[in-house]
TrEMBL record:
Pfam families: GerE, Response_reg. Residues 162-227 form the HTH luxR-type domain. InterPro entries: CheY-like_superfamily, NreC/VraR/RcsB-like_REC, Sig_transdc_resp-reg_C-effctor, Sig_transdc_resp-reg_receiver, Tscrpt_reg_LuxR_C, WalR-like. The modification 4-aspartylphosphate is found at residue 68. It comes from Kocuria carniphila. Residues 17-135 form the Response regulatory domain. Keywords: DNA-binding, Phosphoprotein, Transcription, Transcription regulation. SUPFAM superfamilies: C-terminal effector domain of the bipartite response regulators, CheY-like. This is Response regulator transcription factor.
């Protein structure tokens, strides 16, 4: 079973299993070499197109997929949907790879089940950090990405907001949900609210349970769709 709920590996913990899906061989090779050099990460496969992803996931059972958004045969959005629809396994977390941070597919990728985004020109440190963050169950949303989400919704004034779906949440849970939607980690939320990180984890768990959501990324989507997060900042 894929261990996509595991925290960053330490000591004798099993390594985070990663596959890389990108039509550019240099990206696959370069990212693969950087990640394989880490003691707590191992690259277990790669593919040049989204059409190969489902079979690759079935064979290698990765924890994290680095997935290019734009590929010639099957793009990253459709490949992500295909992976999330696979029955009988814990779904791996998916980081979408893009060449610029204003990609028009940002919101569609989050709705498809992506856990975050990474620019292809990211530093080695950012790449390794991204894999560890997403493997630990966090979302990976840079401020530029959350700004893009807000801008998208600001252009849709006629979109109906259904705040009633949030009625099961307490005021504190709503506050935590807002902070999750800005891309903050549990540690950052704990610091802002002056509570223990474990308390934040408990709040996040209850939000997921009460709203029937799968992961933190779905919390982000729900926050924007419900209107909890204002389009004016």
């Amino acid at each position: 079973m894929a261990q996509n709920q595991m925290p960053p590996a330490h000591h004798d913990d099993p390594a985070i299993r990663v596959i890389i899906v990108d039509d550019q061989a240099m990206v696959r090779q370069g990212f693969g070499a950087l990640l394989d050099a880490q003691r707590d990460i191992t690259v277990v496969g790669s593919a040049a197109d989204g059409s190969e992803v489902v079979e690759l996931v079935r064979r290698s059972r990765p924890d994290v997929i680095l997935m290019d958004i734009r590929m010639p045969k099957l793009n990253g959005l459709d490949a992500t949907r295909a992976v999330k629809a696979m029955p009988g396994l814990e779904h791996p977390r998916i980081i979408m790879l893009t060449t610029f941070d204003a990609d028009e597919y940002v919101f569609s990728a989050l709705r498809a089940g992506a856990s975050g985004f990474l620019l292809k020109d990211a530093t080695a440190e950012d790449l390794v950090s991204a894999v560890r963050i997403v493997a630990a169950g966090e979302s990976l949303l840079a401020p530029s990405i959350t700004s893009k989400l807000i801008a998208d919704y600001a252009r849709r004034p006629s979109t109906r907001r259904d705040t009633a779906v949030l009625s099961p949440l307490t005021e504190r849970e709503l506050g935590v949900m807002k902070l999750v939607a800005t891309g903050k980690s549990n540690a950052e939320i704990a610091e802002e609210l002056f509570v223990a990180e474990q308390t934040v984890k408990s709040h996040v768990s209850r939000i997921l349970s009460k709203l029937g959501l799968r992961d933190r990324t779905q919390i982000v989507v729900a926050a924007y769709e419900s209107g909890l997060v204002s389009t004016e900042r």
